[in-house]
Design a protein that fits this description.
Blueprint lengths: L1 H26 L7 E4 L2 E4 L17 H37 L3 H24 L3 H15 L3 H9 L1 H13 L15 H11 L4
Antiparallel strand pairs: 1-2
């Protein structure tokens, strides 16, 4: 009887040990990283991304904290649109340079304008007033030109003036410039952190 009990205990110990060993083997992960040779030794060579560090923000009250959180949300929502505007402008400008005359260029700009309206009108209607104002500034940041200058260059002064007047009805301005070292300092900090994946 004692021999049987010892045999059962030994079987349980062996089964438990092999089960633990199998679980440990499943949990081990192998990471392949590039290698480089340094002073005769082969070592892992890992490129770390840049980490931005800013002075910690101090909020006077809960209202300021909520305003900051709102700014972060607004930047995350509008920055991709501003970057898409920049890509569209570059592509449109490069394509316009290949067209032979003004008539063809005007025709292409009308197609682009129509396509942009179809693609972005629904998305832009969902933006809040503060997000719309921020988008105007972020477009200036990404393109180094105000929204008014862009509208004037691509659509002409009449349409640019119309859009400026329309924006003015709501207390906004297409001529608003982005000032990263002035009034938009905190916005610039948030943009950099969002672009770097830290927010």
């Amino acid at each position: 009887m004692i021999k049987r009990l010892n045999l059962l205990i030994n079987l349980f110990i062996i089964a438990g040990a092999s089960l633990c060993h199998a679980q440990n083997q499943q949990q081990e992960k192998i990471y392949l990283v590039p290698m480089c040779v340094y002073e005769g030794d082969t070592i892992p060579c890992v490129q770390l991304r840049e980490v931005l560090i800013f002075k910690p923000l101090k909020f006077k009250n809960e209202k300021e904290r909520k305003e900051y959180d709102r700014l972060v949300r607004n930047v995350k929502r509008t920055l991709p649109i501003a970057k898409e505007v920049q890509r569209t402008i570059i592509e449109t400008y490069e394509y316009l340079e290949t067209l032979p005359n003004k008539k063809e260029k005007d025709k292409h700009i009308k197609r682009v304008e129509k396509g942009l309206k179809e693609q972005y009108t629904a998305q832009l209607k969902k933006l809040s007033f503060s997000q719309g104002k921020l988008l105007i500034k972020l477009v200036d940041r990404e393109t180094n030109q105000t929204s008014y200058e862009l509208a004037k260059a691509f659509l002409g002064p009449f349409k640019a003036g119309f859009y400026q007047a329309f924006a003015g009805l709501f207390g906004a301005s297409l001529k608003k410039e982005y000032r990263p070292s002035g009034e938009d300092k905190l916005t610039e900090q948030v943009v950099l952190l969002v672009e770097n994946g830290q927010l």
